[in-house]
Automatic annotation (TrEMBL):
Catalytic activity, EC: 4.2.1.1
Superkingdom: Bacteria
InterPro entries on file: Carbonic_anhydrase (IPR001765), Carbonic_anhydrase_sf (IPR036874)
GO MF entry, a single one: zinc ion binding
Record keywords, A-Z: Lyase, Metal-binding, Zinc
SMART domains the record matches: Pro_CA
Claim: Thylakoid is one of the keywords in the record: no
Protein name: Carbonic anhydrase
Family per record: Belongs to the beta-class carbonic anhydrase family.
SUPFAM superfamilies: beta-carbonic anhydrase, cab
Biased composition (Polar residues): 1-17
Residues that, per the record, bind Zn(2+): 44, 46, 97, 100
């Protein structure tokens, strides 16, 4: 079986985690608009993730789409459709990470805190270690914050089996959302592949998430 770009980038990560830099930060000169590796990455916005460094990507090789949690939202899907159909990418990589802030709240809790609920403000303050300041106002947007499914934990909690499971649930939901989207073909001559990983912010290593598998419980 031929080695994919995703396989090569995973090997780059092993070098990165061992202290060997792969990404070259210098300006590379004129580049074509299409990513040369035909890769699109959806990753969390966390400041501890430098996607180019941890994958050993060079300028011009991949599209990088980032948001809170690296969640496959409607906008991420929009970007992936454009990336694939107009700019010729055919491999998608999802990256979540340990100690993620999306494990520390629920959508309802954050909305209640923003609207002025004192109990929610207190819980959010305890979770984040900072004074949570309510706006005292309701809003129809964003419709969702996409907090990860499962019981909340303090912000920046070290990895354990439970939070790793929660992260894997969300990665699998993202893979499923892409694989089952009618405009992102999963088979045929124009098919895209999608694989998901969890990045350990304490070691620099990527760990692949198996798919299919459990995608979470509200209990």
């Amino acid at each position: 079986m031929a080695t994919s770009n995703t396989d090569e980038l995973f090997r780059n990560n092993q070098q990165y985690a061992s202290g060997e830099p792969v990404h070259m930060p210098g300006y590379p000169g004129k580049q074509p608009i299409q990513p040369s590796r035909r890769v699109a990455v959806v990753a969390c916005m966390d400041a501890r993730l430098d996607v180019e460094d941890l994958l050993g990507l060079q300028t011009g090789e991949a599209h990088i789409i980032r948001n809170a949690g690296g969640v496959v939202t409607e906008d991420a899907i929009r970007c992936l459709i454009i990336s694939h159909h107009l700019l010729n990418t055919n491999e998608i990589i999802l990256i979540h990470h340990t100690r993620c802030g999306m494990l520390a709240f629920t959508d309802d809790l954050l909305k209640a805190g923003l609207e002025g609920d004192a109990a929610a403000e207190k819980l959010l303050g305890q979770a984040t270690g900072r004074t949570f300041v309510s706006t005292g106002k309701a809003s129809s947007s964003p419709v969702a914050f996409h907090a990860f499914r499962g019981p909340i934990e303090p912000l920046d909690s070290p990895r354990d089996d439970k939070n790793m499971e929660r992260l894997a649930w969300d990665v699998r939901r993202g893979i499923s959302a892409i694989k089952n989207h009618p405009w992102l073909p999963a088979s045929g001559p124009d098919a895209v592949t999608v694989r998901g990983f969890i990045y350990d912010v304490d070691t620099g290593e990527l760990e692949e998430v198996s798919y299919p598998g459990p995608m979470g419980s509200i209990g």
